[in-house]
Amino acid sequence: MGEEERQEENQQSNSQIELTETSESTNQQGHDWPLKIKFDVPPYRTYHFHKQFRTGPNPNNFLKGVKWSPDGSCFLTSSEDNTLRLFSLPDNGSSDHVTACSSASEEDSYKAELVVSEGESVYDFCWYPYMSASDPVTCVFATTTRDHPIHLWDATSGLLRCTYRAYDAVDEITAAFSVSFNPAGTKVFAGYNKYVRVFDVHRPGRDFAQYSTLQGNKEGQTGIISAIAFCPAHTGMLATGSYSQTTAIYREDNMELLYVLHGQEGGVTQVQFSKDGNYLYTGARKDPYIMCWDIRKAVEVVYKLYRSSEDTNQRIAFDIESSGRHLGTGGQDGLVHIYDLQTGQWVSGFQVAADTVNGFSFHPFLPMATTSSGHRRFQMPEDDNEDLHLRGDENCASVWSFSYDFTAGEQC
């Protein structure tokens, strides 16, 4: 498949990945705005995209996820056609006059600025944590796909910067199921079957540190490591979710296992720390509850947040807004539900699509969010039922704007 040629190109491009650790405040501009989102007021749809996802031979191509860039200038979507699309936010969301659009519109709000096609199904993708549109060197994101190494893509040109390759016992490339940069942006952590492999960002290729998630015959984490998240409070901890229905907490520096959390009814598909690092939120496939864990008490479930996901194999993402007080999650009912993290109580919900809302991501500092929707449909070759073809309000991505108040003396 031309892998050897690609490897040579990657070695030649090593000089192009001089990613530098910029000041954290650069990417968190606006985080200290005295802004309070009014979740009791339904948001309005600012931008809508669906037509460009229907190109190609598969009319039922559906979205699988969406993530804002760390600087908030754009967002990235992943879809079933093995393609990632980058949409820039017009005026970086600073325009005072925005016209709300309808999901019934035949045209998209605007076209994707960048389209990256992978050779196989995309398992996971993530942004470089210090990505800033003002510094093209930092504009990169990582992807992991079936039967391929980890790819690092240039978000301005769409070119492949380099690859990070892991090999199995017979010296064949093995694909990661999850990928994440550490908070410092110096390492790439990747989840495999019963292993976590750690690559140096500045050294692409096949050099990596390997850590087993099993502690001999004792307690450990079995199965495929399907999700990775780092504590934002710089405590040096990370969490990994597994399809074995467990979540494990490790030390970042030496991957020492601290404890394993049990309780999800399905394979864990997402883990995320609270902003202060004291709590961990986990979600699983075909499990209707997001669990909140107090990691200071190791095994205690504080509360559970309901979402409709019992009957779909689709991954359903949730996210915590910049102030750390609210969590938003999609569901198979086409709604986004907002919860108060201080009380665990439901706050509000709003209709997003006529299909499963599988992706939800808050803007890093503006009162906005983006969503993606759709799920796999099974159709017999001789079945020509038009109802099985996705409509613009089913397989779509949207940007939503929330009402807000300026609260003097408070910070997000």
UniProtKB/TrEMBL annotation:
Residues 19-30 have a biased composition (Polar residues). It holds the Pfam family WD40. InterPro entries: SWT21/TCAB1_mRNA_Telomere (IPR051150), WD40/YVTN_repeat-like_dom_sf (IPR015943), WD40_repeat_dom_sf (IPR036322), WD40_rpt (IPR001680). It comes from Theobroma cacao. This is Telomerase Cajal body protein 1. Residues 1-34 are annotated as: Disordered. Gene3D superfamilies: YVTN repeat-like/Quinoprotein amine dehydrogenase (2.130.10.10).
